Amino acid sequence: MSAFEFYTDDIKQDMGAVDNYIKRALKTHQRLLSDVINQLAGSGGKRLRPLMVILSSRFGDYKRDEIINLAAAIEILHMATLVHDDIIDDASIRRGEPTVQSRWGKNVAVFTGDFLFSTVFSLLSKEVSFDDLYEVSRVVKRICEGEVDQYQQRYNTTVSVRSYLRRIRHKTADLFALSCVIGAKRANCSKTVYNALKNFGTDFGMVFQIIDDILDFEGRQEELGKPAGADFEDGVYTLPLIYALDTDYRMPLLNVLSKGGYDTHDVETVKAMVKASGGIERARATAQNFADKAAEDLRPLPDNEYKRIMLAILDESVERRY
Amino acid sequence: MSAFEFYTDDIKQDMGAVDNYIKRALKTHQRLLSDVINQLAGSGGKRLRPLMVILSSRFGDYKRDEIINLAAAIEILHMATLVHDDIIDDASIRRGEPTVQSRWGKNVAVFTGDFLFSTVFSLLSKEVSFDDLYEVSRVVKRICEGEVDQYQQRYNTTVSVRSYLRRIRHKTADLFALSCVIGAKRANCSKTVYNALKNFGTDFGMVFQIIDDILDFEGRQEELGKPAGADFEDGVYTLPLIYALDTDYRMPLLNVLSKGGYDTHDVETVKAMVKASGGIERARATAQNFADKAAEDLRPLPDNEYKRIMLAILDESVERRY
Predict the structure, then answer these.
(1) Domains of chain B and any CATH numbers
(2) Do A112 and B148 touch (CB under 8 A)?
(3) Which of A5, A25, A196, B278 lies 20 to 30 Å from A44 when distance is taken between CA atoms?
(4) pLDDT at A44 over 80
């Protein structure tokens, strides 16, 4: 996401500070762990969650140092979930780089994730209230429940839109909502502002994940930084496919999906059918609905540069191709 | 460990309360996760760490409800590390039951561990100070570093006693030390008592892990609840083998160890050589040294029933055969 172009100077500076803070926070004398973490922290990513922490906090009394600590903690939390997620998905590439597990093995990946998790809590122990901490733990639990849900629902061709939406809310949107409120609370935002930001975070997260799932069908590996079509190969059926299963393509799709493993031809066949069925357009329309709702959520907020950046990121998220 | 026989009634009651508290704390509506956790929480284990929390706190102003919360959090933290540890070790049996990963797959095991970790922090957010929380995160980081160290040192036949001792301190002893101090701090113990308990926890943890590593060579699966000889098969060389490599058995041992994979015969050969070399006795003497030191650590504490239980557990730990 080329969000940089519409960042204000202060936001650019603060995002740079978050990057530096993350590198410092993740120092370890264990050399292998240090190598792994440097690769992870250096491989970029969109840093959307810490950006949301910073932008949201600007609607209150912005305490820079504390907010940068929180933003870093949230990004490290996200990194931890990615590392563990890649173990589950048996992913070999992420952000255009080999994943921790493909390069160093699942074993190192498990403890790298745990190390990142504990760093999150040690950072938070400096800045947040116990209520916030409880909230962070609750979101991590939700993510775990969402992931196990997803795993348990694999190869389930009767999965409903409703259960898909619940799963991605737990898996993705709750962490965006947390990113928007954890800073806002610290900045003593009013209840109205707080609620607006919380709703925005949730709806933005839904958009983000639905688009991610769409790109899994139509994106190209070079752009995505990871192989396309990887989800349904693992039996994880996402919105475009769920919609496609609700069309005349149901039977031909089931014919392929019911096979044990899929070869390249099967993958291409499923992708072609999902496209032809209109499943992608319908998923895109659902994402657009959430995007409209997210924009609406921001209405109670004052019209300032930070709100404009949030809206611009929202637009880019709907349009993104990688 | 049949420690129950010398527990006082109040300790028995409090340990029962910890068990109930753990079950309540780990409730989730995600059915699979709930099944996994019930198996884990139900499969027993020695509950030594929460016991240390409770016993240590008795040397100060014992606030029962708070201490039971802390004791439960520490046991759940231990459960989390076990679940992730089993992924690393590719373990199929633990506490006489199939491991989470062998029964439900590595994927479920990763997120079960994460769920447990986040529960720890949500419990701690109710009772501890931020200093304690920072301390818990630091111990978890240490455990991760210890585990990655161990992984990185696999098949290293030049591993030193010193580096082995450092590794087990991080991997095991630091959590016992934390168990002894987290409650003691809450109970407002004096600095002298606090330090005595911290040293005891560390030394006790060293004894515990060295004996565990000895049993990996001489224990039997039926007694251990897990296959014996599993560590060196994975290239993890522990104290008895490190000592054996320092004897005339070095060359014949290296002959077997340098093979890629080991068959049953190789495993038995290595075990027999380690025994014949005196490596086990020497490791047992090292454990005894730590046990003597642990008993000495407790000297500043008043002679009461709780100190007697601690000493009895220490004795049993040196003598245990499973």
Answers:
(1) 9-319 (1.10.600.10)
(2) yes
(3) A196
(4) no
Number of residues that make up chain A: 322
Distance CA B136, CA B1 (A): 26
- DSSP code at position B85: H
What distance in Å separates the CA atoms of residue A89 and residue B121, rounded to the nearest whole number?
26
End-to-end CA separation in angstroms for chain A: 8
How many angstroms separate the CA of residue B296 from the nearest CA in chain A? Answer: 32
Chain A residues with CB-CB distance to B125 below 8 A: 130-131, 133-134, 137
User: B29 vs A145: CB contact, 8 Å cut-off?
Assistant: yes
CB contact under 8 A, B108 and A151: yes
Bridge-based pairing of strands B93-94 and B97-98 is antiparallel
* Cα A158–Cα A159–Cα A165 angle in degrees, nearest 5: 160
CA B36, CA B104: separation in Å to the nearest integer?
A: 8
Amino acid in the structure at residue B264: T
CB-based contact, B150 to chain A, within 8 Å: no
User: How is residue B270 written in tokens?
Assistant: 């290595």
Q: For residue B322, is pLDDT > 70?
A: no
Tell me which residue in A107, A126, A143 faces B88 most closely, judged by beta carbons. A107
Query: A112-147 pLDDT, tens per residue?
Result: 999 999 999 888 887 777 778 888 999 999 999 888
8 A C-beta contact, residue B54 and residue B14: yes
Q: What is the pTM of this model?
A: 0.89
CA B310 – CA A248 distance, rounded (Å): 70
Instruction: Note the helical H segments in chain B.
Output: 9-25, 31-42, 48-57, 64-89, 100-104, 106-127, 130-152, 161-168, 174-186, 191-218, 221-224, 230-233, 239-244, 250-257, 264-276, 279-297, 305-319
Q: Is B260 left (phi over 0), alpha (psi -120 to 50) or beta?
A: alpha
Type of residue found at A32: L
Cβ-based neighbours of B295, under 8 Å, separated by 6 or more: B311, B314
Distances from the Cα of B221 to the Cαs of A145, B93, B204, B224, B262, in angstroms?
A: 34, 10, 24, 5, 18
* CA–CA dist B75, B182 (Å, integer): 13
Q: Give the residue carrying structure tokens 């259960």.
A: A163
Q: How far are the Cα atoms of A70, A172, A187, A266, A272 from residue B131, in angstroms, in the given order?
A: 17, 30, 23, 55, 56
B151 touches chain A (CB under 8 A): yes
Smallest CA-to-CA distance from B176 within B80, B84, B94, B74 is with B74
The answer for B 247-276 residues in CB contact with A (under 8 A) is none
**Mutation to test the A interface, candidates B27, B66, B125, B151, most A Cβ within 10 Å:** B125
